[in-house]
Amino acid sequence: MYHRLFARDLFNEFDRVQREVSGRLEAQRGTTARGGFPALNVGLSDEAVEVYAFAPGLDPASIAVDLDRGVLSLSGERVSALTPKVEGEAEAAATPPAEKRIVHQRERFAGKFRRAVNLPDDIDPEQVSASYRDGVLRVTVKRKPTPQPRRIDIH
After folding, report:
1. What is the Cα–Cα distance from 7 to 9, expressed in whole angstroms?
2. How far is C-alpha 1 from the chain's CA centre?
3. CA distance 142 to 139
4. CB contact set of 74 (below 8 Å; sequence gap of 6+)
């Protein structure tokens, strides 16, 4: 009797196709919804706004951090080691069979990404710092000091 490999995984295949289509649509929009890449934590204090982007395995030089009119944008690209980048069918035909790989399941995000965070109005765009360590990008944006009430003397 003929048995198909993965015949019982029809619903898993539908799920995979749905995730792939959703990922491509999010990449085209340039933003991702909750659960996108990289995952973000955003915190506020009296002195600064802290944004943590969890992006392991990236070269810090490939990450762009921009601040424009109160919107902090993080963008870049994660290249997958599983699929070689081939530019055109002529090059694909020239790729030796040993270099071709079949991926049965991919759960780690690969491709271009962009995340944007709206910041409060009282940030100081001149006091921004970013650091990348152990797969975590930390962006600190200082806040302008709030004006304190003062008493005005009458002469």
Report:
1. 5
2. 48
3. 10
4. 38, 51, 53, 63, 64, 65, 113, 114, 115, 116, 117, 137, 139
DSSP structural state of residue 145? P
Question: What tokens were used for 130?
Answer: 């970013």
In which residue are the tokens 């196709």 written?
17
What band does 1 get if pLDDT is binned at 50, 70 and 90?
very low
119 SS3 class: coil
Cα 113 to Cα 31: distance, rounded to the nearest angstrom? 7
Q: How far apart are CA 148 and CA 131, in angstroms?
A: 32
Whether the predicted pLDDT of 94 surpasses 60 = no
């933003």: which residue's tokens? 31
CB 32 within 8 A of CB 115: yes
Contact 148, 105 (CB under 8 A): no
The CA-based angle 78-107-31, given to 5 degrees, is: 55
With 0.85 as the threshold, say if the pTM is over it: no
57 token code pair: 């395995």
Residues 150, 18: Cα–Cα separation, whole Å: 60
